[in-house]
Amino acid sequence: MEFPCDDDSSTSALLLGAPEAPCTQDRPGEPSNPTEPMIRALRLAACGVALLLASAAAGSAARPIVDLHTLDAYFALYAPDSNVPWKPANVRLDTYSSAEVDFAAYAVDPTDVVTAGSGARPRAIDTRKLKPVATWRFTPPGGYQYQTSTIAVPLAAREGFFVVEARRGAVAEQVWINRTRVGLVVKQSPACLAIYGADLGTGKALAGMRMQLLSGARFVTRNTDAHGIVRWTAANGPRPVFVIAQWGGSYAFVSPLPQAPLPTTIVGVRTDSAVVHAGESVRVAGFARTRRGSALRASTGSVQIALRDGPTLVAQSSEPLDAAGAFSATFAVPASARAGEYAILASVDGGVGGTTVHVDGNAGGLALSVQPQCAGTCTADAAVPLIVRATRNGSAAGGVAVRVQVVRSPHVGGDENAAWGLATWLDATVTTGGDGRATIAIPRPTDGLASTYGVSLQAGGATAQTRILVPTARVALRILPDRNAVAFGAPASFTVTAADASSGRPAGDLAVRVTLERGGASQQQTISLDASGVGRGAFAAPPLGTNLIVASTTVDRATASDAAQIEVAAPGGDVASDDSSADVRIAPDRDEYRVNDTARILASDAGAVGDALISLENGAEPVLTVTPAGANGAQAQFRIEDAPGAVSAGAAFVRDGTIEWNVLPLGIDAPGRAVASALRAPEALHAGTSANMSLSGGGNGTLVVRVSRGAPSGGAAFEGAPALVDVDVASTQSSAPADATWHPWVDASGDRAQVVGFARRSAPPATDVLVGADSHAVYWKVERISGEAFALPLPLEGGAYVVSVLRVDDDGRVTAASSNIEVR
Length: 824
Description:
Elements: E1 75-80, E2 89-95, E3 101-107, E4 134-138, E5 147-153, E6 160-168, E7 171-179, E8 182-188, E9 192-199, E10 210-215, E11 218-223, E12 229-233, E13 242-247, E14 250-254, E15 265-271, E16 275-277, E17 281-292, E18 295-298, E19 302-309, E20 312-320, E21 326-332, E22 340-348, E23 351-360, E24 366-372, E25 384-392, E26 395-396, E27 401-409, E28 423-431, E29 437-442, E30 451-459, E31 462-470, E32 475-481, E33 485-487, E34 492-500, E35 511-518, E36 521-528, E37 534-539, E38 545-555, E39 558-569, E40 585-588, E41 592-593, E42 598-604, E43 609-617, E44 623-628, E45 634-639, E46 648-655, E47 658-665, E48 667-668, E49 679-680, E50 690-695, E51 700-708, E52 731-734, E53 742-744, E54 746-747, E55 777-786, E56 789-793, E57 799-809, E58 814-823
Parallel strand pairs: 16-23, 33-39, 41-48
Antiparallel strand pairs: 1-2, 1-53, 2-5, 3-4, 3-6, 6-7, 7-54, 8-9, 8-52, 9-12, 10-11, 10-13, 13-14, 15-17, 17-18, 17-21, 19-20, 19-22, 22-23, 24-25, 25-26, 25-29, 27-28, 27-30, 30-31, 32-34, 34-37, 35-36, 35-38, 38-39, 40-42, 42-45, 43-44, 43-46, 46-47, 49-50, 50-56, 51-55, 51-57, 57-58
């Protein structure tokens, strides 16, 4: 069955460096053509829903004529999650024919419709004995085709809970509308649930509002305090799974999300390389932290470490934990080990941590290796030459046909396998010469974006792989949408970060141009990055369909760019993971705090009214302050305590009948915390000498130092290890989000409506994977240290290297840093 093209469809094909092809044809086996521009203007050649309507052949009485009115039963109804009585009430109707639809609205009690619990759908009600408050008829336009229509519900300024029923003959659907002037904000942690109620018109906190909380099998009634807050702890009983609040004729309700407990033991594991060859060894280092009271401290005893190939135990070891709770081990990988992903698991006191390492296999004595000829100096404006080597039993192997596959991600940094634009870039075969070598070039892209290449070799059963980074400028940009898919009518918010491409240190105080593109249309804004290299922004009204969002800046006359994709979907889909708002700005008075410091928080939201809820959140009970939201924002101050979990500042405001909120992590310098630090090295580094290095911070601890060729990836990247000890377990919900979130229908009395789904044919499912880096550690040492300084022996050969440091202190602090160095 072929699916016709529809340029106005919300699904689109984004062709990355591939020749344009008819959208009715998928070519999963064809490699892309990297010599073509990788990103054309966002091309909407989507293949959408097709309804093949068979008609009777002329003169053929044997084939029945299809009754097009069967399409009348295909429709779907949606309503917004939040609706204030002083704004128009609307529902959304999706249809496939222009048959008339009869509507009726009924005033009902929300308890008759809404089912308590986060995973339950509302109930339908029997409307046959109810008197409607409004009835009307709607005729969809367009004949026999898919149409979506926004329909006004004539409720005037009524307040309360209503059910809207859409009916075509015997087919009916219902959807609820909550016309309310009250909204709820839920702050929760493992120890506490706090609910704040506010008037969506005035923005004022609602003191004395009645709330019913479903705890266990019973409803418990509470009234908000003078600040509009109700608190619930374990002493009150089981954590509520549903909350409904009432203020006059208005209702608000929310189902608190399940809450994960704080872990008692945390184990971190890192390796010397993400890739190892069969017959070689993999070195492992890590740390363990056990919760004592509210803080994490160094674990004691021993750690059990295992190297596993699926269910098969390859090697295991028991190692003592030192005074810092750190450990290290070395595992020999058998020469006969098969190629694939192996797990390294470490367990301490019931806590388990782990990572993976890829093993490149050998076959009949044949071993492969690959490295870029321009290692450390590869540029984006030229092809990247690769050197492929084959050996057999240690000697050069000529005449070996080696398949070379390259996957490209148009980014530098981050989780590349989850990033937009991952695609096969090269798939070719080369044959080694008499010296066992062959060369092949990775074609350069023409899209102006940076590149991370994952290179895989295969010859018989022998494999090899590595990863290559090619930035376009001294600075590498990253644009990260808050959500990869948003509902139509909701803003597309994003974060832009900038870092030095060599050292990974933040690059701040930059002006970044951000463009949202779809087809020939575009929107543009300029974002100013702060001193830490971070900026926030949002596009208020992205168009329906697939949008490309591009960030770019110029540094030293070179352009750094990054791109991502945002799907803007029709309402009713599962397109939002949270409802935080980039419009809420939170500014702490310093970058880092110590225990017992006073944190002064300034929060603002242009256009907000009434009161603001300012919070200090962690794994314990959140500290909440309600303060007026003035023209210059709202201010609050908090005492920093040694509480468990990550520490964040939060703010919630009422604006234009909605609740907007955001949270910002705070840096805490305290025992048992992740500590931000920078690696300092001399400017002149000479081969074969020793360099004096330092890592800020520094009491007694254990230091893991590695010097490698190529940037480490996966389980070999030290930078993500400190974040393991700052577990973020606090969460926020709102009953009146600013984003246009929608809920779908339930079947009403009568026959069930039929719903047609959308089939995406614009591209085959993504199967590309960016392999890890064979970063080849030339130096590795685990040693005890006191203070900030340490001596680093430099390689005997000059060239570009990466120095990575993981510091685990006796008081529980964990620090990591890395830097590119040039050895002369």
